[in-house]
Amino acid sequence: QVQLVESGGGLVQAGGSLRLSCAASGLTFSTYTMGWFRQAPGKEREFVGRITRSENTYYADSVKDRFTISRDNARNTAYLQMNSLKPEDTAVYYCAAVPAGTSVYKYWGQGTQVTVSS
Questions:
Q1: What is the 3-state secondary structure (H, E, C) of 31-71?
Q2: What are the tens digits of pLDDT across the range 27-46?
Q3: Model confidence at 67, in pLDDT bands (50, 70, 90)?
Q4: 98, 29 Cβ separation under 8 angstroms
Q5: Which residues pair with 25 in a beta bridge?
Q6: What is the pLDDT of residues 68-85, one digit of tens each?
Q7: 9 near 93, Cβ under 8 Å?
Q8: CA 65 remoteness from chain centre
Q9: Pairwise CA distance, residues 7 & 112, whole Å
Q10: 86-107 per-position pLDDT tens digit
Q11: Are 20 and 114 in contact (CB under 8 A)?
Q12: Residues 51, 33: contact at Cβ < 8 Å?
């Protein structure tokens, strides 16, 4: 069965950095687009960014130039490098996977908490 497991969340001061990982199993990782989303308390889940099979990346305006998504197909892992963190980045961060030939995020991880203190 497919599993996506996020890790790397935690508490960090404003201006700091964190790197989240998303370890995938049960799928042919290299064929999937991998996305990152986040959900803050009382807010809807929002798109953070994604990386395609060909390693093209796309970001929400709110994180552009601060966050970087990458992938290591040999390790079946996607990463979200977060720099210059702000308190408004506080949220549960989720990774998700889109099968080739579709546009639907079919598989989701359980999320990892990121808290940015001011």
A1: HCEEEEEEECCCCCCEEEEEECCCCCEEECCCCCCCEEEEE
A2: 999 999 999 999 999 999 99
A3: very high
A4: no
A5: 3
A6: 999 999 999 999 999 999
A7: yes
A8: 15
A9: 6
A10: 999 999 999 999 998 888 999 9
A11: yes
A12: yes
